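Example 5.3 — Cytochrome c oxidase assembly protein COX16 homolog, mitochondrial
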Amino acid sequence: MSFSDKLKHYSKRKSFKYGVPFLIMMVAGSFGLQQFSNLRYQYSKKQPVTPDEMKKYGVSMKKRQEVTLETEYDKVKTVNIDEWENKRGPRPWEEEGLSSPAKH
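Solution (predicted structure tokens):
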């Protein structure tokens, strides 16, 4: 029997037809997951940004004592939720002068 005859013989079997692609997917999937896991662990070791580094890039950060749940809640309490207006943002495909929605 030649190689092509053996291949035809085995390709008719269900174990070859479904088992080989399954095993290939399992092996390829493990290599793919390995790459994603490496990315995850590579970036999880990064340290948080310090306020000094942020000042160097022009971003001002508040001190941790200034921002608490209570202070943010007090800010939200002052917002008037009964009188508000829904404002539609501009779409990239629209002209800049349009501020109201298109009427049909």
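Remark. The chain has a mean pLDDT of 83.
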